[in-house]
Amino acid sequence: MRSGPALLALLLTAGSVAAARPASSPALMAAVKASTRSPANVARDRYRHPVETLRFFGVKPTDTVVEIWPSGGWYTEILGPYLAAHGTLYAAGPDDKGLLRSRPNSPQRRLRTAP
Question: Is residue 11 in a domain?
């Protein structure tokens, strides 16, 4: 098994990706700790690591995020408050709920209904 240059390249790449990730922001921590989140979704945090996951993907509070098939809303409960002030969250599903956009004081607000 060869592991020399390929392993080194993989480790260097992983190190540069880790260095490029933004630090955890107070806004992200507040969104994860929000009292508006359901107890069932909060219980899943220990398995899903929301802060680390969103940091890995580099999600910033000014981003526009499209959540495909939000299902039970685990990410929606976090991303809605996190993006509400300066970003936008679209939740797209294959049913009559269509596209939703997050706004302050409303975790999900109908933007338009898909045909």
Answer: no
State the total domains in the chain: 1
Q: Give residue 54's Cα distance to chain centre.
A: 5
- Domain assignment present for residue 72? The answer is yes
Residues in contact with 78: Cβ distance below 8 Å, sequence separation at least 6, in sequence order: 31, 32, 34, 37, 50, 54
CA 47, 52, 58, 64 torsion: positive or negative?
Answer: positive
Q: Residue 53, by phi and psi: left (phi above 0), alpha (psi -120 to 50) or beta?
A: alpha
Residue 29 falls inside a structural domain: yes
Q: How confident is the model at residue 77 (pLDDT cuts 50, 70, 90)?
A: very high
Q: How confident is the model over 39-61, as a mean pLDDT?
A: 95
Cβ atoms within 10 Å of 26's Cβ, excluding its own: 7
Residue 53: inside a domain, yes or no?
Answer: yes
